[in-house]
Design goal:
The structure is a homodimer. Chain A is of the alpha/beta class. The first copy, chain A, has two domains: about 10-160 and about 310-365 and about 395-419, Rossmann fold (3-Layer(aba) Sandwich); about 160-310, 3-Layer(aba) Sandwich (Rossmann fold). Chain A has 14 helices and 15 strands. In chain A, the strands form four sheets. Chain A has a seven-stranded mixed beta sheet, with helices on both faces. A four-stranded parallel beta sheet of chain A has the order 7-8-6-11, sandwiched between helices. In chain A, helix 1 (about 20-35) crosses helix 12 (about 315-335). The longest helix of chain A is centred in the middle third of the chain and has 21 residues, at about 160-180. The radius of gyration of chain A is 22 Å and the shape is elongated. In chain A, about 60% of the residues are buried. Chains A and B meet through helix 6, strand 11, helix 11, strand 14 and strand 15 of A and helix 6, strand 11, helix 11, strand 14 and strand 15 of B.
């Protein structure tokens, strides 16, 4: 703010890790320093760690330009992450007072939180409390999620790299499936993350190109899953091809909302936000097909690989993640609070997108699904509109910094002991 | 052979696919053409397809230098593979006569087979039959297997790329594990291919570097698995670290030879060579730990990704695969038969290796295990000797040829219909 000497910034990371979240951290740091802030603190394990008084001075971690480049290429949340839902203000005002006491002690002007839906809930509550309590601290959110399901933004950093990894890996798995012939045909089922939204699963279609048919069917959670139709589809496909590949979201469910993974006898696990943790959709479907058709089946879960695969990151994604970190810092510096930075796409081809800030109250706890019209009528593939949307986000690569044959990540002595 | 006009060559691929097997195919083709052979045929689905009269003229597939470069970067077996065990000659001489009839009709001088243990059994039998039946056709094997378990060779093409992918992915998974704190700690179990030999599982140790502790324990099939010691090890590790990562081979078994995966109630599947197909080792161990320790667990199977990940291939591996294909062709051209090309390493640092030809009778159906002294005394890690061995094989990258954000593979119109 004009006329007032700039003091310090604190930044945290929250929710599921991605291949791009640390590039946003690098972006926040760079812009904070460039704009004249004295110190940039990093919360360890987000707001949960901050409450416990756990933070670092980022200048001890991002010491050189090379460190910043390594950070951009480091997967997972460098500072540690959390899934911690702040209580409502009236339910635990003491907690809010404690947080603001810590922020005041650290002489914080700007609080940047890099995360998804649940993290924006944190920005909303803290910025609300700042207004109520007369604090000058500005709270701005920086979007991040491989799920790409945040409202009001064209897309979220982290999605492009995960989509590129999924497209690349699905194509390699399809090709692998050509190699061996089996008597009754083979069905490979690839399980992809995305509980509610099918953005990631739809990205499997990126494997489709001049040299590859792509997956033979794609099942998103936006469309109710019909087991009988699925079995019939596989039978029909096997009449034409010896090896078929199906991409399914971990969150597909029948018309009554029952998850396919729950049809199995897997253990159910619910996290702090009440989200069901799913497992075994592909495995369950493989077993069904093997029984119903008698074909060979293979279940492949892309698991955490899809969110951690920095070695296959998209250049557009990593640079945009850096940009959006800087934009969040800029917004807070210029007085915004209770806001999140969003991407606005102005053109698909050539791809052009810029950033804006939006009211976080309109974003938090909302989920943006794949539009129904971007999914084929029979619900077994994505349309060309979906492809036009996702294609620009996976372009280019960052180039891993290789040491002795393996990508190098950012690490400073004693760092892991802090986490 | 001197004084005789050169005619044609046929080449086939067999066994499990790798990221490097097509580079060997490109190497065979290049050397065959350079040495003056007229046509190079490719068997479709190996010897099994050849018996059915299925083959292509490779000049219709490798039409340009760019095609050859794409082929080197294409995962899976370009020509299709098979797991077909030739019967003993005295059990089905008619089959051998049929094969030689086809080879004679195609005017074949040299038969090159790219594969692992079982494929060398095919070379052995066909070269034996050629001698018995007075045929001039020369049969030479070109090594290939991600398992790295072929006898008499320092290593096998395909292993280096799989090892690089495993080291890279394990490192990313370890880092991902740092992000979220859990109350009772977290154990991530990564299941890696290799039924009998632990070469691939040991490669998980490549994640250990200045910026990463590497996996916390590694269990190879060369050492009997002790469930009680395993649980105690995990308990001890969780006292020191919040997130631990364990790499296990799919083939680990107890002292009675019972596979850990069979301790689960998974379905057993036996292939044509009588090999048990395993699944679910990591999943089973996760369940055990979750019950015994109450920690959070996650099972990650690298599945076919580890053998198909051309996008993460090792430059040393791809170039050596090309070299060994050429060396096999050269050996056959110079009159060798019943031989396989092997690598002989003359120096670890700087890495230097050359090729030689060895009698395939000494190779077929033998399995080369990780030496016991390359595994720590307690059987839970590999030693520095193992690392010195594997490190040179993962160096460098090939550089994917990217089209619209996804690696391009070799494909010609109508090709997939042939397979």
């Amino acid at each position: 703010m004009k006329g007032k000497e700039k003091r310090n910034v604190i930044v945290g990371q929250s929710g599921g890790p991605t291949a791009a979240i640390n590039s946003s951290l690098a972006g926040v740091y760079r812009t904070a320093i460039d704009r004249g802030y004295k110190k940039v603190y990093g919360m360890l394990h987000g707001i949960q760690g901050l409450v416990e008084g756990r933070y670092v001075d980022l200048s001890e971690h991002i010491r050189t330009g090379l460190d910043a480049e390594l950070l951009k290429r480091t997967p997972s949340a460098y500072l540690g992450s959390c899934r911690f839902k702040l209580p409502e203000i009236h339910d635990d005002q003491a907690l809010y007072d404690k947080i603001f006491e810590i922020l005041d002690r650290l002489e914080i002007d700007c609080f940047i939180y890099i995360g998804g839906n649940d993290s924006m809930d944190t920005i909303k509550k803290l910025s609300d409390y700042a207004i109520v309590s007369g604090s000058d601290i500005r709270f701005v959110g920086c979007p991040k999620t491989i799920d790409n399901d945040l409202a009001l933004t064209d897309h979220t950093p982290g999605y492009g790299s995960a989509a590129k990894y999924i497209g690349t890996s699905v194509k390699e798995i399809i090709r692998d499936g050509w190699s061996l012939e089996t008597e009754h045909g083979q069905v490979i089922i690839i399980e992809i993350m995305g509980r509610d939204a099918g953005w990631l699963t739809g990205a499997a279609a990126l494997a489709r190109s001049e040299d590859c048919d792509g997956p033979d069917a794609i099942y998103l959670p936006e469309v109710d899953f019909d087991m009988e139709a699925f079995i019939k589809k596989c039978k029909d496909l096997l009449k034409k091809k010896a090896s078929i590949v199906i991409a399914v979201s971990e969150g597909i469910h029948d018309k009554d909302g029952k998850y396919v993974s729950e049809m199995d006898n897997g253990v159910e696990y619910v996290d702090a936000f009440g989200h069901k943790q799913l497992t075994g959709t592909a495995r369950y479907l493989s077993t069904v097909l093997s029984q119903e058709i008698g074909c060979k089946t293979r279940a492949v879960e892309l698991s955490t690989l899809q969110r951690a695969a920095s070695h296959c990151a998209s250049r557009v994604d990593i640079l945009e993640a850096f940009e959006v970190g800087g934009a969040a810092m800029k917004a807070a510096d210029e007085g915004d609070t209770g806001k999140m930075v969003v991407f606005v796409r102005t053109s698909d081809d050539p791809y052009q997108a810029g950033t804006e800030v939006k009211d976080v109250h309109k974003i938090a706890n909302d989920v943006r699904l794949v539009p129904r019209e971007w999914i084929t009528k029979d619900g077994t593939y994505v349309t060309s509109e979906f492809m036009t949307y996702v294609r620009p986000l996976i372009q280019g690569d960052v180039g891993s910094i290789m040491v002795d044959g393996i990508p190098r990540h950012l690490w400073v002595p004693g760092f892991q002991d802090l986490l």
